[in-house]
Amino acid sequence: MISLDAIDIPSQVRIALEEDLGSGDRTAALIPVDANSRVKVITREDAVICGVAWFEEVFRQLDEGIVIDWCCRDGDRVTADSLVCELRGNTRALLSGERSALNYLQVLSGTATLAARYADAVSGTGVRILDTRKTLPGLRLQQKYAVTCGGCHNHRIGLFDAILIKENHIKAAGSVAAAVIKALAMAPDIEVEVEVESLVELEEALSAGAKRVLLDNFSLDQLREAVNRVNGAARLEASGGVNLQTIRAIAETGVDDISVGALTKDVVALDLSMQFIDE
């Protein structure tokens, strides 16, 4: 599971600010350099909040004197029109940081909110909902962290921390068994998972020693049959055709995990608004 300690937030925010500010905020220069203001951030919809650390880091890098008072933290569920936080400090810095800070809070809260909907959909089944590598470019760790804030779980982070043998790997290796045997021998200390597309391939994977199998686009009946055949000998993950309308039925087949690319791929940014407060 991704934790904030594993993420270089200052470097990520520095890149975001360089992208947005470039040589300087020309519009904010209209404001007196010593002006101070109070602003508030509100959510226009029900949500799970995520991205507090990135939001704070934006303003820390612009002006360490800005004070942020939070009404919620990462993982908290909020209702529409709720106050998320209030900020006070240098007006120019508040204006210059507004978009970058909100971008993080909106995208990561959107990811966490969608993850929470999927987690709620399988509540009580014991199934883990897993993310995938279908993340927005440059936001891999941020979105995977957001997934955990929404109550779901992380699959592998990238190509380096686990082996997932998929269809093209199998074709290149010659067979399911050949790929599994080689992977287990090559990396005995790394988790190995193999994707199969039929019950026949499932049996081949199990015979080769696979302890984690991804069942790709199996029907509900096929998933139930796979669970019965495996009988706990390997961890089973369902994938393909998963959405909020189908996921409960998939979970009730008895599989251990369900991977959902939509958690990070189809995210819709949360509707947030930053408003100046009249003194």
UniProtKB/TrEMBL annotation:
Reaction catalysis annotation: nicotinate beta-D-ribonucleotide + CO2 + diphosphate = quinolinate + 5-phospho-alpha-D-ribose 1-diphosphate + 2 H(+)
Xref: Pfam families: QRPTase_C, QRPTase_N
Domain Quinolinate phosphoribosyl transferase N-terminal: 27-109
UniProt binding sites for substrate: 99, 132-134, 156, 166, 195, 216, 239-241, 260-262
EC code(s) of this entry: 2.4.2.19
Transmembrane as UniProt keyword: no
Keywords on record: Glycosyltransferase, Pyridine nucleotide biosynthesis, Transferase
Pathway(s) the chain acts in: Cofactor biosynthesis; NAD(+) biosynthesis; nicotinate D-ribonucleotide from quinolinate: step 1/1
Superkingdom of origin: Bacteria
Domain Quinolinate phosphoribosyl transferase C-terminal per the UniProt entry, residue ranges: 112-275
GO molecular function, one term: nicotinate-nucleotide diphosphorylase (carboxylating) activity
Top EC category: transferase
GO (cellular component) term, any one: cytoplasm
InterPro entries to which the protein is assigned, alphabetical: Aldolase_TIM, NadC, NadC/ModD, Nicotinate_pribotase-like_C, Quinolinate_PRibosylTase_N_sf, Quinolinate_PRibosylTrfase_C, Quinolinate_PRibosylTrfase_N
Entry's family note: Belongs to the NadC/ModD family.
PANTHER family: NICOTINATE-NUCLEOTIDE PYROPHOSPHORYLASE [CARBOXYLATING]
NCBIfam families hit by this protein: nadC (TIGR00078)
The name this protein goes by in its record: Probable nicotinate-nucleotide pyrophosphorylase [carboxylating]
Organism: Sedimenticola thiotaurini
